Amino acid sequence: MDEITTFGVLVLTVAAGAAALLAWSQITARLPVPGAAFFLAGAALAANLVPGAGEGLSIRSVERITVVALIVILFDGGLNVGWHRFRTALPAIGLLGIVGTAGTAALVAVLAHYLFGFRWILAGILGAALAPTDPAVMFSVLRGRQIGGRASIALEGEAGINDAVAIAIVVGLLEYTGAPHGSLLVVLREFLVEIGVGFAVGATAGALVPFLLRHARFPAEGLYGIAALVAAAFAYGAASAAHGSGFLAVFIVGILLGAERTPHKGEIERFSTAVASFLEMAVFAALGLTIDLGILGERAIWYDGLLLALLLIFVARPVVVLPLLVRSRLRWGERLFIAWAGVKGAAPILLAAVAVLGGFESARMYGIVFIVVLFSVVVQGGTVRHIADRLAIPAPRQNEVRRADPVAEHFRVSEASRAAGSRVRGLPLGSRGWVDRIGRDGAERRPRGRDVIRAGDHVVITPDGEARGRRLRRLFEEPRQGVERQGVERQGVEGAAGRPT
Q1: Could you list the residue range(s) of the whole structural domain that residue 63 is in?
Q2: What is the pLDDT of residues 381-436, one digit of tens each?
Q3: Average pLDDT for residues 265-273, to the nearest whole number?
Q4: 10-14, 52-56, 283-287, 337-341: lowest mean pLDDT where?
Q5: Same domain assignment for residues 310 and 256
Q6: Scanning 78, 210, 236, 391, which has its CA 20 to 30 A from the CA of 179?
Q7: Is pLDDT of 254 > 90?
Q8: What is the rounded distance in angstroms from the CA atom of residue 141 to the CA atom of residue 344?
């Protein structure tokens, strides 16, 4: 009985924490500053003012919570970006995510060494931790404030791939310090392995997942969303086990799946977005619970953190990013927006936690990262919409933000319709539309892409937001324009032939 009571208290505690996050999200959604700042600061206050809050939550536990959260967040981000949007800003994304992250890490390391007295290895880890923009914050900030265009795509793509670069640098530095005769080539080797393996695993899984989803026959629609997240977790695990970047693999899986037509794609997107939104709140709250505000009260922590945040935002990122975008097709306003909107978040604190777990017991470094992240989320994240307006950054087009309606539509295929005689894969149903079932000869079945639609079939469509209603009726039930005209002409000839001369 004691076991049941103990577990019940645990469930109650977790449920109370989740309920508090959901309730607090109702308030933060109405504020101009991203909710991540309030969850981070609020949890830190609670951990230091409320007895027992955060007790038993170790840095290792927070690291694992953050990893799980980033798997879902990166997958959802890639799914919403999709390959078709991603490739429009591919050169800028590659430069920002790889060269920009490495360059920012190097410049911050130099500043941390000469201005704040960090030894080179710790300065390098601090620079790598603060270099990447955070996917959790970037995705929510850009979409929540309806910011579109190529600048938004470049920022989302950068946030999706720069974690892999930063993690490779941190892991390489940790290996360098642990090797008896270490060489900086270890860092380069780790970087190449992380990126190469992560890309290979992500591309392979991204090609297989749409195929598997198209041939799956789950008893409930919600299982498609769970299956997609399971595939993302599998890609992360496989890449990490092979010493590659699991985060890069997950993001690539999302991008490739986002470009494919699969059953219940709208359900997959809604489910992944809901889980990602909740985990974003949870991870910032968990990170806040590990902060000791007493240590942050020391001048060497908050003063150095604030000064480093100013140097990172106003010096390091613009100095590195703007030259990389000189030859891009982006307008100057878009380049300035990208240079400003490099918001930090969970990823830097995760990397600082990895360094602590790797043997760098530096409360000063962890506290500085916390100050920089909080300042970045509040200042950069809170001004994104205003800066976007001043720089004339466009809002996303309607078809970029529209989600598929889950309500299925039913049609009887007419003989003269466009759909009659067409293969399922050739139907113009939009990127998220799907032929869910076909009724023929008294039996109902799930179709394959090569199946041919016949006159008299009863089809059940999961519609796209762009292809539904009247447009689908024209496709399945109304005669083609040429056939309709031929019918009118035939009736006119027959009528003329029947009239007396």
Answers
A1: 33-401
A2: 888 888 888 888 876 554 444 444 446 788 888 888 888 888 888 888 776 677 87
A3: 84
A4: 52-56
A5: yes
A6: 236
A7: yes
A8: 11
Are 218 and 277 in a shared domain?
yes
Report the domain count for the chain. 2
Same domain, 415 and 383: no
pTM summary value: 0.78
- Spatial CA neighbour of 129 closest among 90, 171, 94: 171
Q: Report the 10 Å Cβ neighbour count for 180.
A: 4
Residue 126 has pLDDT above 70, yes or no: yes
- Report the 10 Å Cβ neighbour count for 42: 18
- If asked whether residues 276 and 324 sit together in one domain, one would say yes
Do the domain assignments include residue 15? no
- Give the pLDDT band of residue 255 (cuts 50, 70, 90): very high
Residues 185, 270: one domain? yes
Do both 374 and 446 map to the same domain? no
CB atoms within 10 A of CB 295: 15
Residues 94 and 191 placed together within one structural domain of the fold? yes
The span from the CA of 270 to the CA of 251, in Å, is 17
Q: What is the DSSP letter of 88?
A: G
pLDDT in tens, 48-64: 777 666 666 777 787 88
| C-beta of residue 135 within 8 angstroms of C-beta of residue 73 | yes
**Sheet hosting strand 443-445, strand order edge to edge:** 409-412, 458-462, 434-440, 443-445
Residues in the chain: 501
The DSSP element (H or E) to which 436 belongs, if any, is: strand 434-440
